[in-house]
C-alpha cells in the first residue's frame, strides 16, 4: 500500500517519483512533476471496507455475442471514428489542444442527438452556462433540447445524472476541471483527474449511459494531461489541426468497440464544424502543378483513401550540419529514405538542407508514402517537374527495393475518381504471386510499375529539368 509520505507525480504521464526532479524519466517532460499526497488516491468503497470477495460466475469462450447496440449521431465523420456510433455504458476520451474545437464538435454531437429525441446532458467545467448557450446560438443549435450545467464537483454531477431518465450521452468538458471530495489534491492534478474519471466511469457502467470526457493536451504540464486516464476509458480519440488550416481531423487512438485507424475530417466554418466527405479534394486544392519538388501520394486512412500532396525542397546548405525539417511525416522515415537514396542510387544529400511538408497540414502515418517522398525529393534536387496527373505509393526497403503496400486497388480507384491518369507503384504482382492480395481485373488507371528506387530515380532523371519545362509549356 502507499506510504503516508507525499509522493511526486508527473502531471503529464502519471509516473510516480520518490523525489522531485526537473525532468520526468518516464515520459521526458520537463517541469511536470508536482507533489501530491498518495493517501488521497480514491479507492472504491469495497477496497476500504476490507470485505471478502464473492465468487463470480465464469463463462466459456464459445457463446453467442451480440455486437454492442449503438446510438448513431448521424454526424457521419464522428460515427466512422467511433466505429459506428456511441456504445451505451462506454466512456470516450477526446483529447486535443485547447481551442482546437473540441467543445464545438461535442455541442454539435449533443445537439444532433438531442434533436433525435435522446436525453443529452452537457456539463461544462470550463465555461458558464451563458457561454455554452452563446456558442450554441452562434452554431444555430440553440433550439436543441440539450440539458446544460456548469459544475466541477463530480459527486454533485453524479447525483444529478442519476435523476430522471438515463441520458444517452453525457459530455464532461473538461475532465481536468473536475474534482472529487474523495481526493485531497488540488483540482487539475493527476490524483484528482484520475479519481474524478473513475467516478464518472463507474457511473457510465452502472447506468448504461455513454460518457465523453474532454481532455486538454497541455504542453507546459501545469495541469494533468489526458494520458493519465487513457488506460481507464474504452476509447481515446484525438482532435487534431492547427490554427493555420481550417480543417480538423478526428482520429481514434484506442477503441474497444471499433477500429483505430479511421479518421473523421471536418472543416471549421463560421457555422461550426462541417463534415468533409471527400478529404482528397480538400487536400489537393490550391496545388502548384508547375513546380518541381511536389508529388501526389495516394494514402489510406482506415478504410478510406486520402490523396495528399507531398512537397520537398532540397537546397545547398550553409550550415555544418544540414537541416532536416519535416512537417506531417515521421522524421526517422525521411532519414531512411535519404540514406537509401545515397547508398543505392548515389544521390548525395549530405551537403543539402532538406525540407519536407505534407500540404494542408495533414499528417501521414503510413510507410507507404516512401515512394512519393523520394519522388518529391529527387524532383526538387534535379529540378525536373513530375507529371501533375501522376500519383505515387509504395514502401522502400533498405535494400532499395520498392515494396507493394496494402489496399492498392482502393488507392487507384480514388486516384482515378479525382482525374489522375497514371500511378507509379511497386510491382504488385510479386505480392499477388505470394497469394496475399489479388485485385480483380485491370487497374482503373495505367500503372508505371517499378522494381526499385533506382528505377524511380532513372525515370525522373529522364525527364530532366529542360524537358520538364517544355512539358509544362505544352500543357
Ligand atoms: Zn512523465
UniProtKB/TrEMBL annotation:
NCBIfam families: sms. Residues 353-475 are annotated as: Lon-protease-like. Plays a role in repairing double-strand DNA breaks, probably involving stabilizing or processing branched DNA or blocked replication forks. Residues 67-217 form the RecA family profile domain. InterPro entries: AAA+_ATPase, DNA_repair_RadA, P-loop_NTPase, RecA_ATP-bd, Ribosomal_Su5_D2-typ_SF, Ribsml_uS5_D2-typ_fold_subgr, Rubredoxin_2. A motif (RadA KNRFG motif) lies at residues 254-258. The lineage of its organism: Bacteria, Pseudomonadati, Pseudomonadota, Alphaproteobacteria, Hyphomicrobiales. The keyword Acetylation does not apply. ATP binds at residues 96-103. The keyword DNA repair applies. Keywords: ATP-binding, DNA damage, DNA repair, DNA-binding, Hydrolase, Metal-binding, Nucleotide-binding, Stress response, Zinc, Zinc-finger. This is DNA repair protein RadA. It comes from the Bacteria. Belongs to the RecA family. RadA subfamily. Transmembrane segments: none annotated.
